[in-house]
Amino acid sequence: MKSSIFSSVLAFAACALATPATVQPLLKRNPTGSFSLVAYSLASDYIDIFYSDGIAYAGDSSKWPYGSITTDVTFVITDTEMITTATTSGVTLDSDTLLYIRPTDDEVLPVGFTGNGITVPSDAVTTNFIFYGTYLMWEYGSGSLSDSFRAKETNVTGVYELYFDFSNLYPSGYETPVVKSQS
Ligand SMILES: *[C@@H]1O[C@H](CO)[C@@H](O)[C@H](O)[C@H]1NC(C)=O
Fold first, then answer.
1. Which segment of the chain is annotated as a signal peptide (predicted)?
2. How far apart are CA 69 and CA 92, in angstroms?
C-alpha cells in the first residue's frame, strides 16, 4: 500500500498542484458525512489524529496522559470548515470546535481546535479547508493549495504533535506526514 502505488499518487498530486486551475476541479471532492483524519508516513500504518486541550495530535489517544480533555474525533466539512466531534466515551466538545491551521509566513505552528474555553491564536484560520482526493489541503490566495503538515514526536513514543509549515521550511526534527480523510 505504501510502496509504489502510494508514491505515484503523491507524485501525481504534486504534479497536479502545480497547475491547480486546470486539474483541481476534477479531483476536488469533500468527503460526505463524518470521517476521521489520519496521518500517513509517521508509522508503519496510518495513525489517527486526536484532540487534546485544543491541540491536534497523531497517535493513540489512550497513550497520551497530558491534557484535561483528550478525545478521539470525527469531522464533518461544511462551508470549508472542519466541524469536530468527540468520539471517546464520556467526552463532549463544544459545537463550535473547528480545526484550525496558522498560515503565518516563516513559522512552523501547531494545528489546533477552537472552542472549549481555550484561547485561539490570532493567526488561526478555520476556513478554506478542502480535500483533494482524500488529502486534506488548505486553499489560499487564488486557488493555491497547501498540504504543509508537519509532525513532531512528543515525549510519548508514537504520539506526535501536528504542525503546519506554511512557508515549507521543512525544519529539522519534524516529520512530513500526509493527512487524509478516512471514512
Ligand atoms: C511531556 O509533555 C507534556 C506536554 O507537552 C508536558 O506537559 C509534560 O510535562 C512532559 N513530561 C515530561 C516527563 O517531560
1. 1-18
2. 9
* Per-residue pLDDT tens digits of the chain, which is 183 residues long: 333 333 444 444 444 455 444 444 446 778 889 999 999 999 999 999 999 999 999 999 999 999 999 999 999 999 999 999 999 999 999 999 999 999 999 999 999 999 999 999 999 999 999 998 899 999 998 889 999 999 999 999 999 999 999 999 999 999 999 999 998
User: Any idea where the domains of the chain sit in the sequence?
Assistant: 24-182
Ligand 1 pocket, residues with Cβ under 6 angstroms: 66, 154-155
**Cell reading at 172:** 529539522
Q: Which residue has the cell 497547501?
A: 146
CATH 2.80.10 fits 24-182, yes or no: yes
pTM higher than 0.90, yes or no? no
β pairing state of 149-153 and 178-182: unpaired
